[in-house]
């Protein structure tokens, strides 16, 4: 079990980040452990995203620059993989074509108009939300950046549960689809939501329920997109996983600005 956990951490960090971690196993067991460890990879990405935003704000910059810095770090730490998946998924869904043709569009290297518009709106929403949160104080922005990144990777854990098929026989989607038991996915979700509530509690007031609600709303939005993609494409792909992560992160940030 210890060895599998080690391989799971390597799988999670090696496939979901650009951190120098070598994936030593690429089987279903390692994929299952890796997807369960995905929120841990998200926590590291989120904490690293909070650092430049917090430093800029403490050094006297405005909240907008801090927001841009925090939004940029996750893109850098994933080489834009999730953003690319979001754009490809938007092009596939927006094409209105049958599943095979839509999947073919998603595999093309260029980005279509649906992808460009979706990327622009999502990044604007993330920066706008972080600007609002950093404007309330560095702690609000830092916690939000961390929560959004963790919940984004939890959405991947839930999407890898049994009963969700792959759309293609190859690729990351096929490697991880159906590897996580429903019980393990629910347990991971409960732990992460509780952790988000605990992080929010550090801010005082209604921070705990607000951050728990943001996490739940993010997961709900990701699940709606997942159901739509499974219905349209016949299953999940690596691009769909990227779209789920960005959808969850953006939803969490937006909800945290309310109230």
UniProtKB/TrEMBL annotation:
Leading EC class: transferase
Xref: Pfam families: CobS
Cofactor(s) demanded: Mg(2+)
Positions of transmembrane segments: 29-49, 55-77, 111-131, 137-160, 172-202, 208-226
Compartments, record wording: Cell membrane
Entry keyword set: Cell membrane, Cobalamin biosynthesis, Magnesium, Membrane, Transferase, Transmembrane, Transmembrane helix
Pathway this chain belongs to: Cofactor biosynthesis; adenosylcobalamin biosynthesis; adenosylcobalamin from cob(II)yrinate a,c-diamide: step 7/7
Catalysed transformations (reactions): alpha-ribazole 5'-phosphate + adenosylcob(III)inamide-GDP = adenosylcob(III)alamin 5'-phosphate + GMP + H(+); alpha-ribazole + adenosylcob(III)inamide-GDP = adenosylcob(III)alamin + GMP + H(+)
Membrane topology designation: Multi-pass membrane protein
Presence of keyword Nucleus: no
Stored InterPro entries: CobS (IPR003805)
Principal location: membrane
GO MF entries: adenosylcobinamide-GDP ribazoletransferase activity
EC number: 2.7.8.26
PANTHER family: ADENOSYLCOBINAMIDE-GDP RIBAZOLETRANSFERASE
Membership in a protein family: Belongs to the CobS family.
Function: Joins adenosylcobinamide-GDP and alpha-ribazole to generate adenosylcobalamin (Ado-cobalamin). Also synthesizes adenosylcobalamin 5'-phosphate from adenosylcobinamide-GDP and alpha-ribazole 5'-phosphate.
Protein name: Adenosylcobinamide-GDP ribazoletransferase
Organism field: Streptomyces pulveraceus
Upper classification of the organism: Bacteria, Bacillati, Actinomycetota, Actinomycetes, Kitasatosporales
Gene that specifies this protein: cobS
């Amino acid at each position: 079990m210890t060895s599998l956990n080690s391989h799971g951490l390597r799988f999670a960090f090696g496939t979901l980040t650009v951190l120098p971690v070598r994936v030593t196993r690429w089987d279903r067991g390692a994929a299952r452990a890796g997807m369960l460890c995905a929120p841990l990879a998200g926590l590291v990405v989120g904490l690293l995203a909070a650092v430049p935003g917090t430093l800029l704000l403490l050094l006297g910059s405005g909240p907008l620059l801090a927001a841009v810095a925090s939004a940029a770090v996750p893109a850098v730490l994933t080489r834009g993989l999730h953003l690319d998946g979001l754009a490809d998924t938007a092009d596939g869904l927006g094409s209105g074509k049958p599943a095979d043709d839509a999947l073919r569009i998603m595999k093309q290297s260029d980005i279509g108009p649906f992808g460009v518009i979706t990327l622009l709106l999502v990044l604007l929403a993330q920066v706008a939300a972080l600007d609002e949160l950093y404007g309330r104080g560095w702690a609000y922005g830092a916690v939000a950046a961390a929560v959004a990144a963790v919940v984004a990777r939890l959405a991947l854990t839930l999407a890898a549960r049994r009963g969700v098929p792959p759309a293609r026989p190859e690729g990351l989607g096929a490697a991880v689809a159906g590897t996580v038991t429903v019980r393990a996915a629910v347990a991971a979700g409960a732990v992460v939501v509780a952790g988000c509530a605990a992080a929010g509690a550090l801010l005082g007031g209604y921070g705990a329920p607000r951050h728990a609600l943001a996490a739940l709303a993010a997961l709900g939005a990701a699940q709606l997109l997942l159901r739509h993609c499974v219905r349209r494409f016949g299953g999940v792909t690596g691009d769909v996983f990227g779209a789920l992560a960005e959808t969850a992160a953006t939803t969490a940030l937006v909800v945290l600005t309310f109230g």
